[in-house]
Amino acid sequence: MLKLYNTLTRKKERFKPISDKKVGMYACGITAYYSSHVGNMRKYTMDDVIKRVLLHDGYTVEHVENVTDVGHLAGDANTTDDKMRVSAEKQHKTMKEVADYYFGIFSKESGLLNIIPPGKFVFASEHIDEMLALIKRLDEKGYLYRLNTGMYFDTSKFKEYGRLTGSTFKKLNAQLKAGARVERVEGIRNLTDFAVWRFAEGEDMIWDSPWGRGFPGWHIECSTMSMKYLGEHFDIHTAGVDHIAIHSSNEIAQSESATGQKFVNYWVHHEFLIIDGRKMSKSLGNIYTVQHVIDKGYSPLALRLFYISGHYRQVLNFTFDALKSVENTLNGIYAFMERMSDIKNAAVNADSPEFRKRIGAERRAFFKSLDDDVNTPEALSRMHALISEANRRASSGKLNRSEARTVVKAMLELDDVLGLDLAKSTGRKAALERGVQNLIDEREIARVAKDFKKADQIRTMLKEKHHIVLEDTPEGVRWHKE
Ligand code: AMP
Ligand code: ZN
Q1: What pLDDT, in 10s, does the model give residues 313-346?
Q2: Atom 11 of ligand 1: nearest residue by CA position
Q3: 179 exposure class (CB count in 10 Å sphere: 0-12, 13-18, 19+)
Q4: What is the CATH number of domain 320-427?
Q5: What are 449-480's pLDDT values in tens digits?
C-alpha cells in the first residue's frame, strides 16, 4: 500500500490511481541547452525508482517526460532570453541541433544509470499546434491579456493561485513586491503573471499564432504535453523543488483554468543534490556530469546507489569520498551475489524454515519501507540486514544450495526496484572463469609456438584489465585475482 508525500497537501497520502491499475506519470525533463549534471540526474534516477516501486506494486506506468527545446527563459521575470536560443547562438548552431546533441548525451547517461526510458519523450517544438489550442481556450475564457512582449496569464483570475506553495495569490505578490531584485515587465498586472506566448521575430523555433509570431512559454509546454498524453486529470507529476513556486504552480493555474477540473492528484518534488556542502554553480566550478564521474574512475551504478542512499525529499551532499565508499559497498554486494550463486554445498537441499522466514521478513520490510514514501535509505538498510543474515549462515558453513537460491531470488527482486544490475554478477564468476580460461589457452598456444611477445601481452592484459595474476607451475598455469 504505497504512500506518497503530496506537495499539494503537504502530507503523506495513500496512493490511489484514477483508473484501477494504470498510473499516469508526467516528469518535468531536461531543458536541452547543456549537459545535465549529477544534480539533474539525481531527479531522473529517483523518478525511475518511484516508477519501479509502482511497477513492483503491480501497476502499469505511463511515464511521459518532456524535452524543452524552446521557450525556457533564463530569468523568472519574463524579460530575459530563451536559454536554448542563447546557447544555439553561442555555438553557431540551430536550436534543434543543440537540443538533439544534449538529448543524445542525456539518453546515454540515463542508460548508464540504468534508468528505464520513459514510455514517451515529448519535445516541446513538436507540440506547437496543441499549445496554441490550449492558449486559445484560455484566451476565450478571459484569462489572458496582451502586452508588447507577449500574451500573459492573469494569475489574479485563478482563485487557488499559489496553493502548491501553501501561500496565496495576495501573499505571493506582496512578497515579490518587497523583494529587491524584481524586474517588472512593463504593463504586467500582477508580479506572478507569466507569458504563455512570447512575441519574437526570426526563423529558428518561431511560429505564427493568432496573436502574432513568436514562441511558447515554458509552463504552457508542460501543461499541454502532459494533458495530451495523460488526459486532463492524471495521477503523478514530478519536478524539482525549485519548480514548486513558479513552474508547477503556473502549470496548475493554466491547466485548471482551461479545463475547469483538477489537473494532478499527486505532486512529487525532489530535493537538490549539493556538492561538498555547496550549491552547484558555474562560478564555483563544481558542476559535475555523469561523464566526469566515469572519467574519475567510478561506475555510474555506484552513482545510482549513492542517489538511492538518500531520501528523495532530503538534500543529498555529494562528495567523491562518499562515492568511493558507496562504490566499495556496491562491489561488496556484487561479491555477495557471486558468493551466493556459487554455493556448492548441496548436502541439505531444503531451506531451513527458520532461515527462510528471516529472509522473507527482511524482504517484506524492504518493500514496506519503499511503500512509505519511497524510503530508499531505510530499504537499503533492510537489504544489508538480509545480506548479513545470509553471510552469517554461510560463514558457519550451514547455508545450503537451496537457501542460497532463496537469497539470490530475494536479492534479484529487491533489484527490480534498485536497478543495480545484480543479475549480472550471479553469472559473472562463471563468465569470468570462461573468459580467463580462453585467454590462458591462447597464451599457452603462443608459448608453445615461441611467440613470447604475444604470451606476455596476454599476461599483461589479464593483469591490467582484469586484475588477474598468472602463475606458471609444474602442474600448469594457475591464476588468482589481485
Ligand atoms: P532544469 O534543466 O534546470 O529545468 O533542471 C532539470 C531538472 O533537474 C529540474 O526538475 C530541476 O528541478 C532539477 N535540478 C536542477 N538542479 C538540481 C540539483 N542540484 N539537484 C537536484 N535536482 C536538480
Ligand atoms: Zn515542466
Answers
A1: 999 999 999 999 999 999 999 999 999 988 865 5
A2: 240
A3: exposed
A4: 1.20.120
A5: 899 999 999 998 888 877 788 888 776 787 87
Residues paired with 400 in a beta bridge: none
Compute the distance from residue 316 Cα to the ligand 1 centre, in Å.
13
Contacts of 79 (CB under 8 A, 6+ apart): 149, 183, 185
Residue whose grid cell is 509552463: 219
Q: Between these two residues, 460 and 249, which has the higher pLDDT value?
A: 249
Chain region(s) in the chain for CATH 3.40.50.620: 3-270
In this prediction, residue 429 has a pLDDT band, given cuts at 50, 70 and 90, of low
pTM score, whole prediction: 0.87
Using a 6 Å CB cutoff, which residues line ligand 1?
28, 30-31, 39-40, 42-43, 239-240, 242-243, 270, 272-273, 280
Domain 3-270, CATH: 3.40.50.620
Q: Which ligand is nearest to the CA of 251?
A: 2
Kindly give the number of the ligand 1 atom that is closest to the alpha carbon of 240.
12
By most ligand atoms within 8 Å of CB, the mutation choice from 242, 244, 248, 313 for ligand 1 is 242
Distance of CA 397 to the CA centre of its chain: 41
Probe residue for ligand 1, chosen from 40, 42, 218, 269 as the CB with the greatest number of ligand atoms within 8 Å: 40
